[in-house]
Amino acid sequence: MFTGIVEELGEVTAVENLGDASRFRLRGPVVTEGAQHGDSIAVNGVCLTVVEHEGDEFTADVMDETLKRSSLGALGVGSRVNLERPTAVGARLGGHIVQGHVDGTGQVLARTPSENWEIVKVSLPAELSRYVVEKGSITVDGISLTVVEAGPDHFTVSLIPTTLALTTLGHKQPGDPVNLEVDVIAKYVERLLGDRAQGATK
C-alpha cells in the first residue's frame, strides 16, 4: 500500500521492448536505498516490482495490459517519473490509501497559475466520475491530491509550490496523459450498497 506522498522525482534511463511487455530502467537514489529483488515501487502511481537493482537504478517489467491501461506506455528515456516506496506498518498516513492500481487515464486540460499555487484541470473518464467528489481524494500520477471541483467529465486540483517543484505535475502541459486512481473506499461502499440493494429485492 502507498499513501500518494511522492518521495522523489526519478528518471527513465532505458526502455526495452519485450514484445508483449516492456522493461524499464529507472533512476531514483532515494527509493533504491535498501531495495531488493521483488520489492514494490510506485512509478507514476503504478505499483511495479523490482527485477534488478544496481546503484541508484532499478529495472521493472511492465506487461502489455498495464501499458494500455496507464500512461507508462508514453514514457521514454529521459522522462521524469514520480517514485514512492510502500508505506511501512505503523508509519503516518500522510496522504490517503493508494493501491497503485490505476483505474484509468486522464489528460491535463488547463493550468491556471496564481500567486502561491496553481489550479490544474484534468479530464475524467465517464466511468470514474461517480467516485470523484469535491474535497475528496484522488491520485494523479501517484500523487495524493484533494479535489477542488468535481465535474461530470473533469476535476480540478490546487497544487502548492512543493508539489509543483517535486513532482511531474510541475511539468505536465495541456494534452499530457496522467494516471488516475480513485479512492478505493468509494468503490467498496458502492459494491456494498449495491449488494444490499440486490438482497432487498430478492
TrEMBL record:
GO MF, any single term: riboflavin synthase activity
Organism: Streptomyces echinatus
Role description: Catalyzes the dismutation of two molecules of 6,7-dimethyl-8-ribityllumazine, resulting in the formation of riboflavin and 5-amino-6-(D-ribitylamino)uracil.
Subunit field text: Homotrimer.
E.C. designation(s): 2.5.1.9
NCBIfam families, sorted: PRK09289.1 (NF006767), PRK13020.1 (NF009566), ribE (TIGR00187)
Pfam families reported in the protein's UniProt record: Lum_binding
Keywords carried by this UniProt record: Repeat, Riboflavin biosynthesis, Transferase
InterPro entries linked to this entry: ATP_synth_asu-like_sf, Lumazine-bd, Lumazine-bd_dom, Riboflavin_synthase-like_b-brl
Calcium listed as a keyword: no
Source organism, top-level taxon: Bacteria
SUPFAM superfamilies the UniProt entry points to: Riboflavin synthase domain-like
GO biological process, one term: riboflavin biosynthetic process
Protein name as catalogued: Riboflavin synthase
Domain Lumazine-binding: 1-96, 97-193
Pathway this chain belongs to: Cofactor biosynthesis; riboflavin biosynthesis; riboflavin from 2-hydroxy-3-oxobutyl phosphate and 5-amino-6-(D-ribitylamino)uracil: step 2/2
PROSITE patterns: LUMAZINE_BIND (PS51177)
Broad enzyme group: transferase
Annotated catalysed reactions: 2 6,7-dimethyl-8-(1-D-ribityl)lumazine + H(+) = 5-amino-6-(D-ribitylamino)uracil + riboflavin
Ranges: Lumazine-binding repeats: 1-96, 97-193
